[in-house]
Write a structure and sequence with these properties.
The protein is mainly α and 233 residues long. The chain contains 10 helices and 3 strands; from the N terminus they run αβααββααααααα.
């Protein structure tokens, strides 16, 4: 469990770039454990989509292309718009209150620089909207797509980079709630497309790979170290 949490934390905090090799022996030395817990950790991260295990080559942090990201966003946008068309008339005051509570948690997660909680609340906001359509097939597909998108957020979002302005999603989510409350499907669609377009173009600028940072060493310790492979976007 320690190996799993440490490797995932290293990915979250960008001590590992997309495409970086995860050498078993290096991980064993870093954690002072045998190969078994390291292999179990890599296998679990592979199942979750953070790591790719290539036979006869080893394990690597996944490295999605800009085309992968574009295709995910295209599908994700259309699914959520379809869901809103199905359910916007069913939103009541209690539903709006739930969305606002999620938004408040998202804002707090950003202020506290809590990236896992930020991703959790960001996902919950959109999943809550889609699930309101009460179409299990739609929800299942959307959940799967959003899980993949969260992995990309982990790799490329600039959450930990110090910035002065508020995070984009909070601003747009607030306006989306207002659009839902006023039953403005067209407004919601416009806001969603604008937000996703902004994020997609930001990803295009931040697409950094393992070969770009030119490092093969991971530092799993909490203390700063010159061998830290974290990269700034």
């Amino acid at each position: 469990l320690q190996a799993y949490e440490k490797i995932k934390e290293a990915i979250y905090k960008r001590r590992l770039a997309p495409g970086a090799p995860l050498v078993e022996q290096s991980l064993c030395d870093a954690f002072h454990v045998s190969r078994t817990p390291v292999r179990n950790a890599l296998r679990r991260l592979s199942q979750e989509g953070y790591v790719e295990i290539i036979p006869n080559k080893g394990a690597f942090v996944i490295q999605p292309s800009i085309e992968d990201i574009r295709q995910l966003y295209e599908v994700r946008i259309e699914l959520e718009i379809f869901a809103v068309h199905l359910c916007i008339e069913t939103f009541r005051e209690d539903d709006i209150k739930i969305l606002q509570e999620i938004l408040d948690q998202e804002q707090k997660a950003f202020e506290d620089r809590d990236f896992p909680l930020y991703m959790e609340t960001n996902t919950e906001f959109h999943v809550t909207i889609v699930d309101k359509a009460e179409n299990q097939y739609l929800s299942d597909i959307f959940h799967s797509i959003y899980k993949k998108m969260n992995i990309i957020l982990t790799l490329y979002d600039n959450f930990y980079v110090p910035i002065a302005q508020d995070i984009q999603s909070v601003k747009y989510h607030e306006l989306m709630i207002l659009a839902i409350e006023n039953k403005q499907v067209g407004k919601f669609e416009k806001l969603l497309k604008e937000l996703c377009d902004t994020i997609y173009h930001a990803f295009r600028q931040r697409l950094v790979t393992y070969s770009d940072v030119q490092t093969a060493v991971i530092d799993m310790n909490d203390a700063p170290n010159s061998r830290d492979v974290r990269f700034t976007l």
